[in-house]
Amino acid sequence: MSRRSGVLEFAVLGLLREAPMHGYELRKRLNTSLGVFRAFSYGSLYPCLKALVQQGWLAEESGRDPDDPRATPLSNRRARIVYRLTAEGKERFEELLAQTGPDSWEDEHFGVRFAFFGQTSRDVRMRVLEGRRSRLEERLAKMRASMARTREKLDAYTLELQRHGMESVEREVRWLNELIESEREGQEQREQRGQGGARERARPDPSDDSTN
C-alpha cells in the first residue's frame, strides 16, 4: 500500500467511526475537515472504499443520495450506498491510531493524524508531536545551510521566497513546542490530582476513633 493510499484509509476509517456516510458526503468531509484531501477525486475514494469493504472493515447499506450532483432528474430515485464501520473496522482504526513512525510526522500524514488526536492516547500524541518537531528541525537546519551557501547567488525575490519558507517552518516548530508543553502540563496536573486523591484516601477518618 502506498503512503498516500494509507493516509486515505486512515482518514476514511476515522470519519466513518463518527457516523455512517455515503460516498459523496464522505468526500465532502475529506475535503472540508481534512484539507490535505482536496486533490482527491471519486476515482481515488471509491477504490479505497471497495478495498475496505473487501477487507471486512466497512459494510455497505443501500439508501438514497439526494445530494449527489451526479444524479440527474431522471435518476432522482437512484440508490446510494452508505458505508458503515464494522467491528473489525473499528479494531483496524484503533490499531492505526496506536501506530507511530516516520510516516506519522510527514507533511501529508501529520495533518490527518492531528485531526484525530481527540481519539488518540496521550503517549501516541506525544510521540507524533515530538517526531514532527524533530523532522521540521532537521528541515530547518538544511534550509539554513542551503541559504548560507547560496544567498550570494540568489536574486532578491528568490531569497525572500526562501526566507518565507523558513519562517513558515519556524512558526510550526513554535506551535509544536506549545502543544508539547501543554501535553506535559496536562499530564503533570493529572498526576498531581491522582497523588492528592491517594493522600485523601489514606488520611484517617476522624469519625472512626478506634480508641473509643
Q: Can you give a write-up of this model?
A:
Helices cover 65% and strands 8% of the residues. Helix 6 (122-150) packs antiparallel against helix 7. The chain has 2 domains: 3-69 and 78-108, Arc Repressor Mutant, subunit A (Orthogonal Bundle), CATH 1.10.10; 121-201. It contains 7 helices and 3 strands, in the order αβααββαααα. The relative contact order is 0.09. With 212 residues, the protein is mainly alpha-helical. Strands 1-3-2 form a 3-stranded antiparallel beta sheet. Keywords: Coiled coil. It comes from Streptomyces mimosae. It holds the Pfam family PadR. This is PadR family transcriptional regulator.
- Can you count the helices? 7
Distance between the termini: 73 Å
Give the tally of β-strands: 3
Q: Based on the coordinates given, report the CATH architecture of the largest domain.
A: Orthogonal Bundle
Radius of gyration: 25 Å
SSE pattern: HEHHEEHHHH
Q: Give the % helix.
A: 55-70%
Which stretches are poorly predicted, pLDDT < 50 over at least 5 residues?
Answer: 70-77
CATH topology of the largest domain: Arc Repressor Mutant, subunit A
CATH class of the largest domain: Mainly Alpha
Strand neighbour order, sheet with most strands: 1-3-2
Shape: flat
